Amino acid sequence: MKFARSFLILAVSTPLALAPAVAGATGIGQTCKKVGSVAVVKVSGKATKVQCIKVGKNLKWQQVATNPQTNTSVTAVSALAPTENCRIADTTPGVISSGFPRPDGYPSTLKKLRVLVLPVSFTDLPFTASDLNYVKSKYKDVNSYYVATSYGAASFEAVYADSANWANAGGSLSENGLTNSNLQFDRSSFFRRLISEYEAKSSTAGYDIVEIVTSSSGQFGGATGMPPGSSMYGTGRSFGGILSTGGAAFSWNTLAHELGHAWLALEDLYFFQTDGQISAGYPVIGAWDLMGISSGNQKELGGWNRWLAGWIASTSIRCVEKGATTRHLLEPLSTKQTSAGSKMMVYKLSDHSVVIAEYRAESAYNEAQSKLLVYRVDTSFGHGQGPVRYVADLGKAGTSVIVDSVKISLQKIDKAGVLIEVSSAG
User: Fold this and answer.
1) How far apart are CA 145 and CA 334, in angstroms?
2) What three-state secondary structure class fits 390?
3) What are the Cα distances from residue 59, in Å, to 21, 65, 387?
4) Residue 384: exposed, middle, or buried by beta-carbon count in 10 A (0-12, 13-18, 19+)?
5) Is 261 exposed, middle or buried (CB count within 10 Å of its CB: 0-12, 13-18, 19+)?
6) Number of Cβ within a 10 Å radius of residue 412
7) Peptide bond into 101 cis (omega under 30)
8) Would you state the pLDDT for residue 5?
9) What is the C-alpha separation between 33 and 20, in angstroms, rounded?
10) In whole angstroms, what is the distance from residue 324 CA to residue 344 CA?
11) Are 308 and 264 contacting, i.e. CB atoms less than 8 angstroms apart?
């Protein structure tokens, strides 16, 4: 954190020997002639570094933040685009989305959620009291995950249905259509039937999410997150729904992924059809985002999805539009937000696409090597079509990547943060 704060000091008390004075550089906000040129001017009697930045259609001298220890400059917030400019809309909107504004009708992301857990038995797979212990452990883990991912903004309270009211599917797994089906098989009608039967005996009032869960089985498995409301795959109620079955029944990371649908209104970031990967230009985000792959040694929810969820403050977003070279200090995505820290650099390409850089340091949910992750969001691709695509991960200072004529260079990396430079590649 100290590393992050030191880069965001806006004025220093010692003279800067970074650039010679430039003729005509009289002060911040004054007109300049050449983008990228730097100068030292007096501000309240103190030597202050300024850079020639394109502001709208004009060139202006803008103050540049400086780290007095390394003498490395960071572009001032005043020289960046307004954060609102990087809130791209989803051009394939639906009940779930990868853009702004967020879909209506979902539970708040800034509170303690109440979740009703309803076990279900089949003639060939009964749910037992020992199964319930595994489910309780699952909720302990998923609560810890989302407390960390939301920076303390959200948590869970799981309420377990009384055993006398546990659901009975009234037949075998195959008779209820839960075996020999693909990942996108619609199980919402099965969910709604069991909810109606439960509501005849007890109440679902006051719950934000209802999960129906089977016992574990190695013979089949899968989970489905359902949005609230009366859409085709919705719960038909005011709460979101999750059906966890077989091999996925006791998996906390699978539950975390399905909550991404039923609670956060997020899209699947993997391809439903593999031929889409070839036509799209970049591979899917994969294990770099919980909504891509929820297993393995990387389970973090990406910065873009955290911003969609309302967990990253606008003051932690560095929004860039086409123009001058800019420099950014980013703190680890996983660490608690600070008033001076930045989580993401978002470069706007169009009204429906951006390039993002964020720092993935090693953490409880990222056991991989610390890297600067660069990825692309394009909301013209919908659910299951890969709206979020992997571009590169950089782990060594001096390396860079070019995407959509934007060059992103990693200049410094350590445990506290990364320093990057963003420029035009042509």
Assistant:
1) 11
2) strand
3) 17, 18, 35
4) middle
5) buried
6) 17
7) yes
8) 34
9) 16
10) 18
11) yes
Cβ–Cβ under 8 Å, residues 341 and 351: no
Residue carrying structure tokens 């377990």: 160
Distances (CA, A) of 244 to 6, 57, 129, 172, 215: 47, 54, 17, 16, 9
CA distance 185 to 178: 9
Q: Which helix (H) or strand (E) holds 259?
A: helix 252-262
pLDDT at 26 > cutoff 70: no
The pairing of beta strand 326-330 with beta strand 417-424: antiparallel
* Chain position carrying tokens 């899917």: 284
**60 in Cβ contact with 52 (< 8 Å):** yes
What tokens were used for 41? 């001017």
Pairing of strands 112-121, 344-350: unpaired
For residue 14, the model assigns a pLDDT of: 32
Say which amino acid occupies 367: E
- Report the alpha-carbon distance of residue 221 to residue 214 in Å, rounded: 10
**Encoded tokens for 101:** 């504004």
Where do we find the tokens 């879909």? 103
The token pair at 155 is 């948590």
Instruction: Give the residues across from 91 on adjacent strands.
Output: none
Per the prediction, the chain carries an average pLDDT of: 88
Residue pair 216/250 in contact by the 8 Å Cβ criterion: yes
Tokens of 216: 């574990």
pLDDT band at 177; cut points 50, 70, 90:
confident
Nearest Cα to Cα of residue 258 among 230, 283, 221: 221
For residue 77, what are its two tokens?
Answer: 């917030």
Does 134 have pLDDT greater than 90? yes
Distance CA 182, CA 382 (A): 20
CA torsion sign for 244, 259, 250, 119 is negative
